[in-house]
Amino acid sequence: MTKFLEHISKYKTKPAFVKGDETVSYSQFISQVESYIHLLTAQLDTNTKVVIAVKAEPSYIYYAKLLAIDACKQIALPYVSLEDISSIQYEVVFDTELVVVNTNETQYKLPGSGIILLSSGITGKPKAILHRLDILTEKYIKLNASFKSILVFSPEHISGIETVLSIIAPGGTIYFPENRDALTIAENISKNQVNLLACTPTFLKLIYLTHAFELYDLSSLQIINYGAERMDKQLLKTLQQKLPNTQFYQAFGTTETTNIRTYTLADTDFFKPGVEGQDYIIKYGQLFLKLSQSFVTDLSNQMDIEGEWYATGDLVETNELGYIRITARKNELINVGGEKVSPHEVEHVILEIPGVVDVKVVSEQNLIMGQIVKATIVVEERFKATISKKYIRDFCKLQIADYKIPQKIEFAEKLVFNNRMKRT
Question: 333-411 falls under which CATH superfamily?
Answer without folding.
Answer: ANL, C-terminal domain (3.30.300.30)
